[in-house]
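Our working data are protein records whose layout never changes between entries. Instead of coordinates, the fold is spelled out as a row of discrete tokens. Here is such a record, shown just as it appears in the course material:
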Amino acid sequence: MNTKCVTRFTTMIIFALNCLPLSALAEGIGLGDYLQQVQANHPFFTQQALNREIEQEQQRRYLGDEDWVLKARPSYQHEERSAGSALVAEEQDGLVLNAGMERSFWSNGSRISIDYDYSHLDQRFAAPVNSFDEHGNGVSITYTVPLLQNKGGELSRLDYEFQAYNVDLSAVNSAESQEQFLEQLGLLFLDWVFVNEQRYIAENRLSLANKELTRTKKKRRSRLVAEVDVLGARDAVINARQNLSAIESQWRALQAELATQSGNPGLYKMRPRYELYALKKMPGIEQALSDMAQNSRQLQAIDLQVAQLERLQSGLNNQLNPELDLVLGGGLKSESDHLSGSTRFDQPQYMIGVNFRYPLGQRSAKADVSKARLQQQQFKAARNSLNWQLEAQLRNLLVQLNELEIVMALNQEQIEVARMRTAGELNRHNQGRSELSFVIQSRDNEQNAQLAYAANAAKYHKLWLRYMALTDTLLPNSEQE
């Protein structure tokens, strides 16, 4: 089956599922299960995971500074000169070959170089000396150790260790982005839960309207009510059907979006499973602030940046020291007018010395140190600012959650009062003491009270989801219902 046929078949299946009555969708899915499917299937999470791997590869490239480096520098030179003196060669050919390998060591900042040198000089003179031929061979080792600047290899490791903070920072930022993504889809899922509850309320209202219409028609046939009551009952049924149709359309639209975001076509056969009216156990403000301070990735990101700048400043302070390197060298050398004689390596050589370099004023290095110090102060101030903002948001959320619990309790009372009023109006109508319109209006008021309760419950759980995201507990605990 080709791709076009598969796509057409899938479209037909989805269309058929959309045509099913909502009552046929028996299987439920919870918020935690849904978010887990999103994490497993959505390419956004693959994209975010790659951020850290990219930074890790960037860090690994600095390991190349410790690799052995092969080197070679062959050269040939021909020179012709005017014979102004018998001691000056008319022509000379020189061949030089330098080859070797070198490497730096981060443990102490040292560098070692192992070299092999070969030289051949062929000079041709005017009479009485015809020519001069010389061959030379030598091997040597040079070891350089920093005594002040880069002592202990602090500067040699700087780029690698600096990048390590970028790796950790990338992981923290990626996790924060993933949690924000889950929060948005979690809010969308709660919209679906709310519309699902609206649908139940609308279905119940339609059922009551149909029963009322049937009862009113019977009364009309018995000439107990006027025709206007039948028309009023029919109008209530029509309104209930329209309302339910609009809600079902919104329900399916949210279902389609959620199914696509999770990469799970099976969601078209499911309905949300969520305890909309269940209340959460609210933490105390001090506990909530402690959880936020401990878990906040945004604060962790700033802490990593401050630590990174502290490492940078340590390296910059080290650069203020003079360059003072101890250089040790040794080797064997031999020379001869024959190639075979130049390979005896019978001339030992030893060397010890120091390299010193110190720029007067140190204006560039001092400016870099001062800049790093100011940046640290800036990030610390930004951390305090962010901490205040997060605390303000957290306190705001807790106040709203606590107040909504009170409002939801009042909603329950309002629903109970509306039911009692409906029962009273229905009783008065049955006794012929009121019109049917009062019963219909009372039922509508009861439905509106139920919808207000559902809306406040949905808002409550959205605020709770925001609380979890703010305290950075949503991503690792996505199985939460």
Observations:
- The first strand starts at residue 27 and ends at 29.
- Confidence is low (pLDDT under 50) at residues 1-21, 477-481.
- Residues 363-430 form the longest helix (68 residues).
- Residues 411 and 453 are 5 Å apart (CA to CA).
